[in-house]
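Researcher: Next entry in the queue.
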Amino acid sequence: MKFGKYLLSFLWRSWVFLFFVFTQIFFLPALFLFTNLLPSKKQIFKISKLWSKYLLFFSGILVRKELSKKIEKNKTYIICSNHVSSLDIALIYSTANIPLIFIGKSEITKFPIFGYYFKKNSISVDRQNLRDSYNAYVRAKQVVKKEISVCVFTEGGIPKPEVRLRRFKNGAFKIALESGTDILPVVIYDNKKRFPWSYFKGSPGISRVKYLDPIQIRNFDKNDLKKLNNFVFDKINQELKANENIERTNKSA
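Model: Structure for this entry, 253 residues:
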């Protein structure tokens, strides 16, 4: 029984990977145009959004999103999200109603095709290199002030499966405080089950994401780094905890 389940998960994940590669090739001309000839991060966002919707739909992922009505489309935000799966980027691209770029690990840039365009259109950072981390931090402040929202997985990576939410790194909150940019918290609920790290686990199904009310940075002093970090952490953690309680109640019913 377990073998059959593992086999189905393996075949499904292989399909997701192959479709990921296929769609990257399909969108390559548009990516090249708006990266190299007519650079536009907002156009790249639109392409990425469309690509993500196709990827998730044809992978059997049924997206359910909840957007705060307080999100202003003409503003830029520091978007802070929990991180549970390699599908998180596609989920946020497909559901965000404001243009954005990601801050991500430099390892992502090593992927063929996707890595090149990620490096060109997002902010990659090697967290082991202090100079690289500082440069990414400076660039993020410049971008969010003038151009487009920046999304950060504030845990600094995907935590172990048993961890609900790992303590946040300070980088996103430094950027928000120093640039005067409001924070938009995002909660991803189901991707840990849909597409976990283990290659023999995972399945199609519903994946939910919730965009909470923006947090106004003017309510925090520039010295309130730790306070802001804890405030955003608590907001996301409370949502995840409440969801766990609902799921536990439903299982026992």
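Model: The chain has one domain: 2-236.
Researcher: Noted, moving on.
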